[in-house]
Amino acid sequence: MFKGLGDMDLSKMMEAAQQMQGKMAEMQEGLARLTVTGEAGAGLVKATATAKGELTALDIDPSIFKAEDKEVVEDLILAAIKDAQRRAQDKAAEEMARLTRELGLPGDMKMPF
Protein backbone atom coordinates (compact mmCIF):
# COMPACT_ATOMS: atom_id res chain seq x y z
CA MET A 1 0.00 0.00 0.00
CA PHE A 2 1.55 3.28 1.12
CA LYS A 3 5.12 3.05 2.25
CA GLY A 4 5.52 4.06 5.87
CA LEU A 5 1.81 4.10 6.65
CA GLY A 6 0.24 1.21 8.47
CA ASP A 7 -3.29 0.04 7.68
CA MET A 8 -4.46 1.64 10.92
CA ASP A 9 -3.09 5.08 10.03
CA LEU A 10 -4.60 4.98 6.54
CA SER A 11 -7.91 3.80 7.95
CA LYS A 12 -7.97 6.70 10.44
CA MET A 13 -7.06 9.18 7.69
CA MET A 14 -9.87 7.89 5.46
CA GLU A 15 -12.35 8.06 8.32
CA ALA A 16 -11.28 11.65 9.14
CA ALA A 17 -11.59 12.62 5.47
CA GLN A 18 -15.10 11.15 5.25
CA GLN A 19 -16.09 12.93 8.47
CA MET A 20 -14.78 16.22 7.10
CA GLN A 21 -16.61 15.69 3.81
CA GLY A 22 -19.84 15.06 5.71
CA LYS A 23 -19.37 18.18 7.83
CA MET A 24 -18.67 20.26 4.72
CA ALA A 25 -21.88 19.00 3.09
CA GLU A 26 -23.83 19.83 6.27
CA MET A 27 -22.32 23.30 6.32
CA GLN A 28 -23.23 23.91 2.66
CA GLU A 29 -26.83 22.89 3.38
CA GLY A 30 -26.84 25.15 6.43
CA LEU A 31 -25.58 28.13 4.39
CA ALA A 32 -28.51 27.64 2.02
CA ARG A 33 -30.92 27.92 4.99
CA LEU A 34 -29.24 30.85 6.79
CA THR A 35 -30.38 34.27 5.66
CA VAL A 36 -28.91 37.75 5.94
CA THR A 37 -30.49 41.11 5.20
CA GLY A 38 -28.68 44.03 3.61
CA GLU A 39 -30.02 47.56 3.86
CA ALA A 40 -29.65 50.87 2.10
CA GLY A 41 -31.16 54.32 2.59
CA ALA A 42 -31.56 53.87 6.36
CA GLY A 43 -33.71 50.78 5.80
CA LEU A 44 -35.82 52.11 2.91
CA VAL A 45 -34.55 49.24 0.76
CA LYS A 46 -33.78 45.80 2.19
CA ALA A 47 -32.40 42.80 0.33
CA THR A 48 -32.49 39.32 1.83
CA ALA A 49 -30.12 36.59 0.66
CA THR A 50 -29.02 33.15 1.77
CA ALA A 51 -25.57 32.87 3.32
CA LYS A 52 -24.55 31.35 -0.02
CA GLY A 53 -25.34 34.72 -1.63
CA GLU A 54 -28.60 33.83 -3.42
CA LEU A 55 -30.96 36.81 -3.38
CA THR A 56 -34.34 35.70 -2.00
CA ALA A 57 -36.32 38.90 -1.35
CA LEU A 58 -36.45 42.67 -1.76
CA ASP A 59 -38.41 45.00 0.53
CA ILE A 60 -38.84 48.54 -0.74
CA ASP A 61 -40.55 51.26 1.29
CA PRO A 62 -43.28 52.74 -0.97
CA SER A 63 -42.31 56.28 0.02
CA ILE A 64 -39.38 56.17 -2.40
CA PHE A 65 -41.47 55.56 -5.53
CA LYS A 66 -41.39 58.94 -7.22
CA ALA A 67 -40.50 59.24 -10.90
CA GLU A 68 -37.95 61.99 -10.25
CA ASP A 69 -36.15 59.72 -7.74
CA LYS A 70 -35.74 56.78 -10.13
CA GLU A 71 -31.91 56.84 -10.13
CA VAL A 72 -31.78 57.17 -6.35
CA VAL A 73 -34.11 54.17 -5.97
CA GLU A 74 -32.01 52.10 -8.35
CA ASP A 75 -28.85 53.03 -6.43
CA LEU A 76 -30.51 52.09 -3.12
CA ILE A 77 -31.62 48.73 -4.50
CA LEU A 78 -28.12 47.95 -5.76
CA ALA A 79 -26.60 49.07 -2.46
CA ALA A 80 -28.97 46.84 -0.46
CA ILE A 81 -28.18 43.84 -2.68
CA LYS A 82 -24.44 44.43 -2.36
CA ASP A 83 -24.81 44.77 1.42
CA ALA A 84 -26.72 41.46 1.55
CA GLN A 85 -24.06 39.76 -0.58
CA ARG A 86 -21.28 41.10 1.68
CA ARG A 87 -23.15 39.89 4.75
CA ALA A 88 -23.63 36.49 3.08
CA GLN A 89 -19.88 36.23 2.47
CA ASP A 90 -19.20 37.21 6.08
CA LYS A 91 -21.69 34.60 7.35
CA ALA A 92 -20.16 31.91 5.12
CA ALA A 93 -16.68 32.79 6.42
CA GLU A 94 -17.99 32.63 10.00
CA GLU A 95 -19.48 29.19 9.40
CA MET A 96 -16.27 27.96 7.75
CA ALA A 97 -14.20 29.19 10.71
CA ARG A 98 -16.58 27.41 13.10
CA LEU A 99 -16.30 24.19 11.10
CA THR A 100 -12.51 24.30 10.95
CA ARG A 101 -12.37 24.86 14.72
CA GLU A 102 -14.72 21.90 15.29
CA LEU A 103 -12.53 19.71 13.10
CA GLY A 104 -9.38 20.87 14.87
CA LEU A 105 -7.94 22.43 11.72
CA PRO A 106 -5.98 25.69 11.54
CA GLY A 107 -8.31 28.71 11.53
CA ASP A 108 -6.71 30.19 8.42
CA MET A 109 -7.03 26.99 6.37
CA LYS A 110 -8.78 27.58 3.04
CA MET A 111 -11.33 25.01 1.90
CA PRO A 112 -11.92 24.29 -1.79
CA PHE A 113 -15.12 26.32 -2.40
UniProtKB/TrEMBL annotation:
UniProt GO cellular component terms: bacterial nucleoid; cytosol
* Gene3D superfamilies per record: Nucleoid-associated protein YbaB-like domain
Could you state a single Gene Ontology molecular function term?
DNA binding
Q: Where in the cell is it found?
A: Cytoplasm, Nucleoid
> Where mainly located?
cytoplasm
Q: Which UniProt keywords apply?
A: Cytoplasm, DNA-binding
Keyword check for Cytoplasm: yes
| Keyword DNA-binding attached | yes
Function of the molecule: Binds to DNA and alters its conformation. May be involved in regulation of gene expression, nucleoid organization and DNA protection.
Similarity annotation: Belongs to the YbaB/EbfC family.
User: Quaternary structure?
Assistant: Homodimer.
NCBIfam families the UniProt entry points to: DNA_YbaB_EbfC
By what name is this protein known? Nucleoid-associated protein Pden_3648
Q: What is the scientific name of the source organism?
A: Paracoccus denitrificans (strain Pd 1222)
